[in-house]
Each structure stands twice: as C-alpha cells, then as structure tokens.
Hints:
It is a single chain. By secondary structure, this protein is mainly α. The chain has helices spanning about 1-15, 15-25, 30-40, 45-70, 75, 100-115, 120-140, 145-170, 175-195, 210-240, 250-275, 280-310. α11 (about 250-275) packs antiparallel against α12 (about 280-310). The longest helix has about 30 residues, at about 280-310. It is globular and about 65 Å long. The model has no long low-confidence stretch (mean pLDDT about 95).
Amino acid sequence: MQYLLWLQNMRAKVAVELEDFLAVFSDTAGFFVILICMLYVIVDKKKFCHVLFCYSICSSFNALIKITACVYRPWIKDPRIVPAKKSLGLATGYSFPSGHTSAVASCALGTISQYKDNALLLVILSFYTLIVAFSRNFLGCHTPQDVLFALAEAALSLWAASILMKALEKNEGADKILFVSATLLFAAFFAYTLFKAYPVDLDAAGTVLVDPKKMQNDAMFDLAFAIGFVHGWFLDKRFIKFTTDNISGKQRALRLAIMIVFALVINFVIYSAAKYYFDKRLARFIKGYLFSFATAYLAPLAFTKIERALKW
C-alpha cells in the first residue's frame, strides 16, 4: 500500500493527460485479445492458435484464483487509496491477480514464442506488457502482488500451452479427448464460480462492500471464452479445416470484414439483449463464449463457404 500511495502522490503531481493516457492504454488489453483473434484467421492460424490457447489457459487460471482468493481492490482495503476515475470502468472483479496484466502478458508471450527471431516484436510487446503492468499500479487499481503474480501466470500458461499443442499434434484423437475433458472440467469451473461461498463484508453503515454476484461476471466471461475456443477449434478441425496458407489479399479482407460483423453483432445486439433479458452473469457467459466460438468456428464457416462459392 505504501508503494501505491507513493505512486498516487506522483500521479497528483504529473499532468492529468498522462493519467488519462495510461488509463486508456491499460484498457487496450481487450483490444489486444481481439487483435489476436483477427490474426488467427487472416495471418497465421497455427501460430495464433497457440497464442489463443495460451490466453485461454491464463485467463481461466486468473479467473479461478480471483474468485478463490477474493482479494478486495486496494481502495476497499485502504481508503487512502484513490484510484484514477477513468480506470474504474474496467476495474471490475476482485483484485488479485490483475486481469489486464495476465491478458496482455499471455498474448504477448505467446506471440513472442511463435516469432522468436523477430527482435523488434520482442521489444515492442515486452515494452507494451510492462507499461500495462505498471499502469495498473500507477492508476491505483492493483497492488504490485496482483501484477507480479499475473506475469507469473502468463509464463506458466505459455509452458502449459506448449505442452498442450505438442500433445495435440502428436496424438491422433487427442482433439476428442480435449473436447470432452475440457467440457466436463469447465462445467465444474462454472459450478464452482456460481455456488462457492464468497465473503460478504459490511461497511460502517451496514452496506455490503462488494457484491459477490458482480464479482462473478469476469470469471463467467473468461471461462466461457476459453471453452468456447476449445469447442470452435474442435469443430473447425473436424469439419472445416480452414487455412491461412497462401491466402490472397481479397481473402484477408473478406475474413476481416466477417470477423468485424460477428464482433459487432455479438457485442451490440446479442450481448445488449442478453443483459436486458438475463442475469448479467449469464449475459457475460454468452458474450465470452460467442466471441471465441465465432473466431474459431462461426466466422471460418461463413468465409469458407463464401470463398468456395466465389472460387477464390
């Protein structure tokens, strides 16, 4: 907390534009994941499949630790901490570990591991990850422990994803095993998220400090994204088998356009309707699942049929 207070004092002395920039910069974590999804279908399927598995493992691990540790945000634990206002919108869920940091670090490490000879990419993604990690402390959203553990999560997830990808490549029928085992495992994860006991602490006025139901939202999205990608990946592997090898510029443009359409429909139509009609946790599940499932299966199904019809 002393470190956060020191950074808070620094924040008060610098130009407000720097604080605003770091708030916006750290929130690019979500757009980075979306970019990885785009690159999966228009640049290199194999390489970015590895990255998406790394991200899925890391985000799932992060979500489960968050709802198990149930660590409150710094400003709840210490009222002296005043977070940057513009960073509060996406500072959801429990504090430990940092979701922004784990998302960026897992995608960055996964990409670096697939482009080992690209020194410029290594520098850019490393710098990007460190700035996002630092910004979460600077903005008062996370403690150093939250950020450091998230970085360790990403490194561990990279190792786990590497083992998984090798197993899938070497063993015929391993995709079926992954499909079934992941489905059962994540069903248990969702049950754990919804039915485990959560702390319910009250302030001096008797108001609940943190609503457990709101804390489940991020976990529902992250876990749904992971299992949605596994399901989509399996269906593509079995029935579509789209490729990014030797595709033309017009194919890339078509695929990008279809991905954008799916993203817009999921976010602004389906998710908006789900929030209105269903519990927010279910809505977040639907959004997370559809985003990754559309990336791995629905969009490839659409653009593959169009490409074949046009004889591209």
